[in-house]
Description:
Radius of gyration: 20 Å
Distance between the termini: 4 Å
Structural class: alpha+beta
Order of helices and strands: HHEEHEEHHHEEHHEEEE
Amino acid sequence: MAWKQATTDEIAEYYQDEFDEYFDQIPAFVRECQPKEVGVAFREAYPVKGDTVPGKQFVRRGAFGDDSSDFTQWTGDSGIKQFIKSPPANDPISGRHKLVSPELADAPSVPEAVYYGTDFHDRNWVLVVDIDAKDVALEYAKAAVDGDGEDAEESLKQRAGVIDAPPEGFPYRFEDLDQALEYGFEVKDYFESSLDTDATQVVYSGQGCHVYMYDPDPEYRYSEVPRRHIATILEEKKDIPIDTPVTTDESRVIRLPYSLHAGVSRVVTPIESPDFDYRSEAVPAVCDTPEATQ
């Protein structure tokens, strides 16, 4: 099967032709609330108006309640959706940090990745656990080969056969990605059984998964200390490799569900089972060639 980086043309076509259909499927706890920020990343630094201001490869923009932003809703001429489709053409800020109009820039204006802030204006922030296949692969490599604490991650993975296994050249195997999804549902079960909430969601992120707890009850407005406690339980007691700062930091941005993970040409997709077939079910139509699903 093809496991490849999307071209800029494919990214542009996805957001112009396919994203509208997915838009209404964005989980309600994101779309029906008011995230404080949205963010986009570019494949290469994109120029801004200020002559002495370096180009930006990543920008965060206030989404609501900020005088520097004219975003008042997800849709409409000034909505978040339009910003996602063409950030430079719909950049809400003014001044020397505003993105240059796409007609004046010698750089692709499509977003390499799209994010939203996990804190909101009108509700509690969400708690997110990020499980990346590359971290699962590292745990596998450490167990598979003899090494010490000074061995570089790439060296361990190379010796364990990770780099040469499908998908060749990536820092994980498909088995590690499958395991990441299994871990995601273990985290979901932990949230529901130990934290007494059913406001949870697992999302296939492209190269791993995100697990959300989004209960609006003030009881679940976790500060940094309980977040660290949760991260410690997952890492040390359940042996699940997670990206700890994603869980402990209240002001993170995370990939927007149904945005495109351009690094592997897959749609970021909410899932109901670890058996989700990301090789075929998450392929956008623009990349759905016969080679893409073999």
